[in-house]
Amino acid sequence: MKVILIGFMGAGKTTVGQLLAKKTNLAFLDTDQLVSQRTGQTPGEIFATVGELGFRQLEQTILQENLVKQGVMATGGGIIELAANRQLLKNSTVPVIYLSGSFGQTVERLVKDNSRPIVRNKSLLELAELWEQRLDKYAEIATETIYTDNKTAEQVAEEVSQYMKAYHDETIENR
Ligand SMILES: Nc1ncnc2c1ncn2[C@@H]1O[C@H](COP(=O)(O)OP(=O)(O)OP(=O)(O)O)[C@@H](O)[C@H]1O
Ligand SMILES: O=C(O)C1=C[C@@H](O)[C@@H](O)[C@H](O)C1
Ligand SMILES: [Mg+2]
What we know:
Bound molecules: adenosine-5'-triphosphate, (3R,4S,5R)-3,4,5-trihydroxycyclohex-1-ENE-1-carboxylic acid, magnesium ion
Main location: cytoplasm
Subcellular location: Cytoplasm
Order of helices and strands: EHEHHEHEHHHEH
Largest sheet: 5 strands, parallel
Oligomer: single chain
EC number: 2.7.1.71
Binding site for Mg(2+): 14
Number of domains: 1
Binding site for substrate: 32, 56, 77, 134
CATH topology: Rossmann fold
Strand order of the largest sheet: 2-3-1-4-5
Strand content: 5-15%
């Protein structure tokens, strides 16, 4: 991968990733979409049939298989739940961008879309608890954090692309 986007559900990883892929002329890969392609089921259906752990195992296989490919990867919001995935991301040389923002603006995006099983099954308080539990895990593996509040997805994609250019130039200089 050339870049991997991580962050909570609704951070904009898929939306920004698609815009970024266009901008940089790279392939777009999304772990949620790849899991769905492999199983023929949505994340919601997979959660309902094999549970969250079953989904996480599929997600891990997809992450491992696709890390070596060239492109922009958007991950699922829970990719950081498994220690093995955090290790895979930490050990890779790919820049990992954490799309971060306030809980308020993130929830505003999520309530407009009822497709996420984790959001559907949780109260706002439980979602806030999950948010708290996950923050350190995103920060721990990120090579860069980009704050998304009050920015359009296009603006965020532009910031990530600037970061990729700087990262690439620095890597060449250090060779
Ligand atoms: N910067 C932004 N400003 C406003 N709305 C946004 C922004 N980024 C994304 N959105 C909207 O928020 C919603 C969630 O975005 P998206 O599906 O890209 O999130 P995600 O991080 O991929 O979530 P998940 O972890 O569930 O895959 C979409 O409706 C999208 O259009
Ligand atoms: O944050 C999560 O746990 C999830 C996020 C989505 O991207 C999907 O991967 C699924 O709905 C679970
Ligand atoms: Mg997504």
